[in-house]
Amino acid sequence: MIERRPGLAIVRHVVLVAGVCTVMFPIYVAFVASTLSLDQVLAVPMQLWPGDRLIENYSAVLAHGSERGSSAPVGRMMFNSLVMALAIAIGKISISIISAFAIVYFRFPLRKTFFWMIFVTLMLPVEVRIFPTYKVASDLGLIDTYAGLTLPLIASATATFLFRQFFMTIPSELAEAARIDGAGPLRFFWDIVLPLSRTNIAALFVIMFIYGWNQYLWPLLVTTQESMYTTVIGIKRMITGGDAATEWNLVMATAMLAMLPPVLVVILMQRWFVKGLVDSEK
Amino acid sequence: MEDRAVFRSRWMPYALVAPQIAVTLIFFFWPAAQALYQSVLQQDPFGTRTEFIWFDNFKALFADPLYLASFRVTAVFSALIAVIGLSLALLLAVFADRIVRGAHVYKTLLISPYAVAAAVAGVLWLFLLSPSIGVLALALRRLGVDWNYFLNGGQALTLIIVAAVWKQISYNFLFFLAGLQSIPKSLIEAAAIDGAGPFRRFWTIVFPMLSPTTFFLLVVNVVYAFFDTFAIVDATTQGGPSQATEILVFKVYQDGVQSLDLGGSAAQSVILMLIVIVLTVVQFRYVERKVQY
Q1: Which residues contact B63 (CB under 8 A, 6 or more apart)?
Q2: pLDDT band with cut points at 50, 70 and 90 for residue A132
Q3: What digits encode the pLDDT tens for the residues A20-72?
Q4: Is A180 near chain B, with CB under 8 Å?
Q5: Which of B27, B135, B277 has the CB atom closest to A46's CB atom?
Q6: Which residues sit opposite B43 in a β-bridge?
Q7: Among B residues 20-39, those touching chain A with beta carbons less than 8 Å apart
Q8: Chain A interface, mutation test: which of B8, B14, B20, most A Cβ atoms within 10 Å?
Q9: Across chain A, which distance is largest between two alpha carbons, in Å?
Q10: Region label for B260, one of left (φ > 0), alpha (ψ between -120 and 50) or beta (otherwise)
């Protein structure tokens, strides 16, 4: 505290409470709508306190989706989203940590070239190469498979940089000592580098899990069967157009289910989340 | 990065980089090359006839009023997202910076939208602003606003901007908060002793010292507005009404995947790639400088 201004402290809390309320409002309304019957949602104005249909709505979407829109069970979609998020997070971390290890601890021809190739992927998001990437995936028979959902997204320049940056802070004496003691590179990686990287791995895991769970365009392109939909694209299929036709209470229940895992991950792993976010942008 | 290499092996480094390089080649370089190649071809939708036409696809694009309109929409859209998103986040961060009691609660609640998928964010705001049943749409109508984004292009654009800003606010907030907390307290105390009030201190010390963070966030937000907002547009307005919200990424998808105009869509992809490359270079040059400070 620089100076005592009790008035200012109150203003601070008032502004923040207003900010938090505004930011949380859409989520609160979605939650309320997910506990109402369809008639209650369509009533104008909709009530702003929770109703009593919570269990019915959620078990309905988990078991068989929306009756009027897409009727794919959301339970299945949640499973697909989970597989996709975990495979992307683990895949990105694994292939990045070993390539960063090779780039830092070995000297070999084409090392710089590989490094730049990985760097350039930053400049080629899926959104700019939509159709050709889809074509490659379909030529390889990856449509409607888990491999198709995840493989094209697991190259990661950010994770590779982060690990490279971190490995360069590990004192080189450690590697030399390990070598003198007769440890090979893999042994050194497994016993020293990997345990030292634990916090970085946790931080990246949080960021990549959210990234994977929230993917939209790629699953939209690469899945055609309802049984392969992820939750995020499933929601859109439940909106049939026209407010009266859409079962908004069920759509909102699905939206809550789609938000729950990543929001929980962020809140429970907040420390790593902030570290991951800040580090991965360096 | 000089005398680090300690291990020797003829094959191991290649085996270690192989998975990453394979994915990069198959799913990044090859499709990007395909996009480049197709952008100079003309193909009918059934793929029976292909013709090499040099830069005609690009010429056609820049002569197409719809494409130019999409450029304009994207420019307005990203400028508004960056300005509104950064201002709101900065405001919240400045007020959150000095709070001791309850700081953790505020922070936790403010960062949760980051975890919400863009498409879900779009659907949440779609529900709030739906002309017939939306809670906020009703409030707007009571205030005398004739709210119907199905008909009014400006309102449709407002809808996607609100959803996009809402989702990005957590990110901006976290970076501003980190920036604020790295400003040395002694500077602010010195100014306070010299009699500068909170507003004066903010404009003469805090804001200038935040400029690296602000610039970085500006670039990140523009990239976000250009590319990550595809899901918001697709889940809400789908480019309509009459192309009012058809941002560039959405148009690539629309023309390529829906209308099967492969050459035109590939040419648009190439233009987008150039934009990402410029933005990435700007961001990295700036980061290089920050490292040297």
Answers
A1: none
A2: confident
A3: 999 999 999 999 999 988 888 888 788 888 888 888 888 888 887 776 666 67
A4: no
A5: B135
A6: B50
A7: 20-21, 23-32, 34-35, 38
A8: B20
A9: 76
A10: left
Q: Scanning the structure block, which residue is given the tokens 């090979």?
A: A184
Q: What helix, strand, coil percent values describe chain B, rounded to 5?
A: 75, 0, 25
Find chain A residues with C-beta within 8 A of B17's C-beta: 98-99, 102-103, 114
How would residue A171 be classed by pLDDT, with cut points 50, 70 and 90? Answer: confident
**CB-CB neighbors (< 8 A) of A171 in chain B:** none
A148 in Cβ contact with B55 (< 8 Å): no
pLDDT band at A88 (very low <50, low <70, confident <90, very high): very high
Residue to test with chain A: of B43, B123, B224, most A Cβ within 10 A: B123
3-state secondary structure A67-132: CCCCCCCHHHHHHHHHHHHHHHHHHHHHHHHHHHHHHHHECCCCHHHHHHHHHHHHHCCHHHCHHH
φ, ψ of residue B41 in degrees (nearest 5): -115, 160
For B217-260, the pLDDT digits (tens) are: 998 899 889 888 899 999 888 877 878 888 888 888 888 777 77
**Interface predicted TM-score of the whole assembly (ipTM), two decimals:** 0.89
B129 touches chain A (CB under 8 A): no
Q: How far apart are CA A175 and CA B4, in angstroms?
A: 9
- Does B174 contact chain A (CB < 8 Å)? yes
Closest CA–CA distance from residue A96 to any residue of chain B (Å): 7
For chain B, list residues with pLDDT below 50: 1-2, 291-293
What is the structure's pLDDT at A26? 94
Cβ-Cβ contacts under 8 Å between A and B: the total is: 300
Residue with tokens 């937000």: B221
Q: What are the tokens at B48?
A: 């029976």
**Distance (Å, whole) CA B293 – CA B288:** 9
How many angstroms separate the CA atoms of B193 and B185, rounded?
A: 12
Amino acid identity of B282? V
